[in-house]
Amino acid sequence: MAQNQLGSPVLRLQRHPENLKLYHEIIKKQLGDKFVEVVTNDNPKEGRYLPHHPVLKNSSTLWIVFNCSAKTKQSSVSLNDCLQTGPSLAQTQYDVLLNFHIGTYAYTVDISIAFLRVELQEDERNYTKFQWIKDPNDPNSELITYRFASVLSGAMSSLFRLQATLDMHLKKSNSPNKREISNNLYVDNFQETTSSESKLLNIYHKANRELMGANMPPKSWVSNNAKLNQLIETDFPDYQVPEKTKVLGVEWDTTADQYDNQVGGAK
Predict the structure, then answer these.
(1) Please, which residues have CB within 8 angstroms of residue 189's CB and are 6 or more apart in sequence?
(2) Which of 46, 105, 154, 241 is least surrounded by CB atoms within 10 angstroms?
(3) 15: which strand partners?
């Protein structure tokens, strides 16, 4: 099934060679980062193979989506059918957005490829196998079998695994800000407001330290405070703080300090 479904995304990507090249580079980078690994002496009867396809976001960002709900036939079970979802450890989106209005100064940050930062145990990895062509310039080239060494976002249990990992790390932390950081995490996003500029700068440093300590490097810091934005661009020289960003799907104009055409923002 996975091999048969591979032909469709390859054909689609061939129509846009730059996307085909990017797709191949994403897999190779994940291999280099040890998020995936090549399966040697693969036994087709062992584990499970996942179909995958490209999704183009905003006409510029390419994502590889793995279908963990795929079934070989209607009566069979998918990988997701065999996994427990686990309890939600996240704050509700409503609470997060409501809290985001409390203080004068606001900030938000994402964790870089958060799910892939959580390692899969060795005996689980064969259930996340997938195949890709060896040479993207030759659609008939040999198929290479890979498997995930890390949690992939399309699996039913992945959200709980990520939340539990972050929760465990913060509980073990000696930081006086660990509860504050934990209470303002939503999946792979961290956002908060405060009325004190000194506290704003302090929590920025503390959050960076905690996330890096958990091997969850932060990216895309954004604030409505000019001093913090200058600090962010100093600490992340290859990154320019945008004037607009999204907070849990809601667009936030940091200059006007308001949500998408709505007065209020973080103030």
Answers:
(1) 108, 109, 110, 111, 247, 248
(2) 46
(3) none
